[in-house]
Write a structure and sequence with these properties.
Blueprint lengths: L3 E4 L2 E3 L5 E7 L9 E6 L6 E6 L5 E3 L7 E6 L4 E6 L8 E7 L10 E5 L2
Parallel strand pairs: 2-10
Antiparallel strand pairs: 1-3, 3-8, 4-5, 4-9, 5-6, 7-8, 9-10
Length: 114
């Protein structure tokens, strides 16, 4: 079993930046594609970015050019650098494998508002 702890969310003005971190337990972290998901108010959870252990990345069209995913396999940690934030980025952000294989963590709330 793998457990996730997401941190780094907060309240930010439009155009601002945040860096999210996800610490994963388990020694098999490095073999999985790791992703960041989000669930906005009244919306379904969606994948926003993922990264293979070899460094290949995917970003959803809605965040392309603004969000960057990275990972440190030695530390079982995945990051999401979010720049040029928009109100529509407001959501609870989660990490998990892609596809999601393990229980969801508590997530971290990101609120973009002036």
């Amino acid at each position: 079993q793998v457990h996730f702890v997401e941190t780094g969310g907060g309240l930010v003005e439009p155009g601002g930046s945040l860096r999210l971190s996800c610490a994963a337990s388990g020694s098999i972290f490095s073999i999985y594609i790791m992703g960041w998901y989000r669930q906005g108010p009244g919306k379904q959870r969606e994948l926003v970015a993922d990264m293979t252990s070899g460094g290949h990345t995917y970003s959803a069209d809605s965040v392309k050019g603004r969000f960057t995913i990275s990972r440190d396999n030695a530390k079982n940690t995945v990051f999401l650098q979010m720049n040029s934030l928009k109100p529509e980025d407001t959501a609870v952000y989660y990490c998990n494998t892609v596809p999601a294989k393990f229980a969801w963590g508590q997530g971290t709330q990101v609120t973009v508002s002036s």
